[in-house]
Structure formats: C-alpha cells, structure tokens
Amino acid sequence: MTLQIAPSILAADFGHLADEIRLIETGGADLVHVDVMDGHFVPNLTMGVPVVSALRRLTALPLDVHLMIEEPDRYLEAFVSAGASMISVHAEVCRHLHRTLSRIRELGARASVAVNPATPLATVADAAHLIDNLLVMCVNPGFTGQTFIPESTARVAAARALLTSRGLSASIEVDGGIGPDNAALVVGAGATILVAGASIFHQADRPQAVRDLRAAALGT
Ligand code: DX5
Ligand code: ZN
Question: Which pLDDT value is given to residue 25?
C-alpha cells in the first residue's frame, strides 16, 4: 500500500490557512487532516463544518476529517456534504459502530474508526469488515505537539495483524507525535497514513518538512 502523508492543520497558522495549504501541496501532501473537537470527548475546541467547506474550496486534496466529538452520528451528513472524503469516528463514543460506519459509506465517504491509546483493538475487531481505515491514536487526543506514546508501535503491528487475519487490507493511520524520528518505525509496523501536525506546521520550511517526513518513513 502506498504511504500517504496527512498534515494536521490543527498545528497550522489559522490566519494564513490558504497559504498553509499551498505549502503542504507544494511538499506533496496526500491528504489534509482536519481535527474536529467538541470540548467534551476531548478537552479542547477546534473547528467544524464551515472550516471543512472552506478547505474544500481551497484544495483538491482529500479531506481526512477526524471527529473527536461525543455524538458523531448527528454530524456525519453535514461533514460529507461539506466535502469530507474520509471520516474517522472514535470507537469510544460509538454505541452502534456498524450503523455509524455503514452510514459513512452510504453517504459516500471512506469509513474510519479511531482508537485511543488505552482502547483495546478488540473493540473494533467485529466491525473490521466495515472499516476503510483504522486510526491508531499515538497520543491521547486533544492537542497538537504531544509526545508519541512508545507502545503505539506494537499496537500498529497488532492492528495490521488483526486486519490481515480477517483477510482485510484497510489502511492504518497513525496520529499523534509523528515525525521523522519515528516514521519508519510505525510504517515498518504497518501504518500507511501518517498524520503530522507539529513536525510539519511548526517547521519553518513546510514543503521540506513534508518531504523529510516521507523520506524518513520510507528510509530514502
Ligand atoms: C490530536 C490530533 C492530532 C494532532 C496531531 O488530538 O488528533 O491530529 O493535531 O498533532 P501532532 O502531530 O503535533 O501530534
Ligand atoms: Zn487527528
């Protein structure tokens, strides 16, 4: 599976969002990762549907919308209509995961489920056939710039083994504390989408930061 780089705009300069998008496009980013937080599921508030609509007009890159909110079902249609290409919902808040994932697919987006660092992967195993992407959180969600939890690498390997044992080839996305120092490790374990906030947008040269991350991940 090809490696994809998904810069997380949570770490971008919101006063210059259009410029920030241009810069990551120049660097060869594959997706734009959009962190939606509600102040309940995570202790932070960020952006919502209007920002996704604005991004949709700014770029042709697929929008990878990560919902860190308590009741994702209420907003799926709005986010897909606004231009989300993939939607991640958190396993911790989905009482009816099959229903939620099926609904995302029905709406025409890729269905993704996210698991926090302390959530057993077994929680999502029986819905794995409905998953286009499994998002393995490598920090407790809420903020950019946190430190990668080292046990995450083993969880990525376990997630890949779980999918393979069921004959599935969903992408595995890692999110939180990803940078050139650990990219090869998580990719070696089976990750195929790298989300990166601080390691791209907190660097002076954003295009080069995207290239550096890809090169580090591929060992080139
Ligand atoms: C964390 C968010 C991440 C975050 C990543 O709660 O889901 O997408 O923005 O930022 P870094 O790469 O700086 O950890
Ligand atoms: Zn995220």
Answer: 98
